[in-house]
């Protein structure tokens, strides 16, 4: 693809390569394109530094930066990437360039704007986030078989809420994976594992392995 022929800009906070730390893609080398700005203020957010700032980059410049890192897997993340109108165009441009594209997004904005070739990892906000009322429940009907749904769990109440949503909507039948992710440092993952086993919950426990490998507060990993 000729990057000079791609129009549009996005506010980019950072582009870097690391090991994918979450989802069923965990452990694989991945390029992260972090977009700036977010419409939510989850109390446990670990990327609040990306709420503001960023540098305006054209789609062509972003593609060139990604190409220099020479990795077939790319995740568009934030902040909240869907706040930027050119996010779908960026996802499509990366797909057209031959990348496998993941998009990490909250459940507060419609995922319908994203191209079919992208894998959407949607974070439904539990009560402990402080943003539960912002979930757009219409997104559940928009899930595709390759998509994934994540719940970030801070306590037993969050777990029970997530369990209810999973069962009510049979999420395991709608998407590729249902993920339960403990708030790092706030709850022992063993507790969530025990609850899942007791309930025979059709979900996957995920740990943020990048926070285990590196300092949990380190950026760019």
Output the keywords.
221 residues; nine-stranded mixed β-sheet
Description:
It contains seven helices and nine strands. Mean pLDDT is 94; it is low at 1-5. It starts with 8 loop residues before the first strand and ends in an 8-residue tail after the last helix. It has a single domain, classed as Alpha-Beta Barrel (TIM Barrel), CATH 3.20.20.70. It is an alpha/beta fold. A nine-stranded mixed sheet has the order 3-1-2-4-5-6-7-8-9. It has helices at residues 59-69, 87-96, 139-142, 156-169, 171-174, 189-199, 209-213; strands spanning 9-19, 29-35, 55-58, 73-77, 100-106, 119-124, 148-153, 177-182, 204-205. 27% of the residues lie in helices and 24% in strands. Helix 2 links the parallel strand 4 (73-77) and strand 5 (100-106).
Secondary structure topology:
Blueprint: E1 9-19, E2 29-35, E3 55-58, H1 59-69, E4 73-77, H2 87-96, E5 100-106, E6 119-124, H3 139-142, E7 148-153, H4 156-169, H5 171-174, E8 177-182, H6 189-199, E9 204-205, H7 209-213
Parallel strand pairs: 2-4, 4-5, 5-6, 6-7, 7-8, 8-9
Antiparallel strand pairs: 1-2, 1-3
Main sheet characteristics: 9 strands, mixed
Structural class: alpha/beta
The overall strand count is: 9
Helix and strand run: EEEHEHEEHEHHEHEH
The geometry reads as: globular
CATH class bucket: Alpha Beta
How helix-rich are the residues, as a percent range? 25-40%
Strand arrangement within the widest β-sheet reads 3-1-2-4-5-6-7-8-9
Q: Write down the Rg.
A: 17 Å
In short:
The protein is of the alpha/beta class and about 220 residues long.
């Amino acid at each position: 693809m000729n990057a000079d022929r791609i129009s549009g800009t996005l506010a980019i906070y950072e582009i870097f390569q690391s090991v994918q730390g979450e989802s069923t893609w965990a452990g694989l080398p991945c390029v992260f394109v972090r977009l700036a700005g977010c419409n939510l203020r989850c109390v446990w957010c670990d990327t609040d530094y990306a709420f503001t700032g960023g540098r305006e980059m054209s789609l062509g410049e972003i593609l060139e930066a990604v190409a220099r890192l020479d990795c077939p897997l790319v995740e568009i993340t934030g902040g909240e990437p869907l706040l930027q109108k050119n996010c779908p165009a960026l996802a499509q441009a990366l797909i057209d360039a031959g990348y496998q594209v993941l998009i990490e997004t909250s459940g507060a904005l419609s995922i319908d704007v994203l191209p079919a070739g992208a894998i959407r990892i949607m974070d439904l906000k539990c009560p402990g986030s402080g943003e539960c009322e912002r979930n757009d429940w219409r997104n559940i009907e928009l899930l595709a078989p390759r998509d994934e749904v994540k719940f970030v769990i801070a306590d037993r109440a969050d777990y029970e809420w997530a369990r209810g949503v999973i069962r009510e909507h049979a999420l395991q039948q709608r998407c590729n994976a249902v993920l339960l992710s403990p708030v790092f440092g706030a709850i022992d993952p063993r507790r969530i594992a025990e609850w899942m086993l007791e309930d025979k919950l059709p979900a996957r426990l995920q740990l943020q392995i990048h926070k285990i490998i590196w300092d949990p507060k380190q950026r760019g990993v």
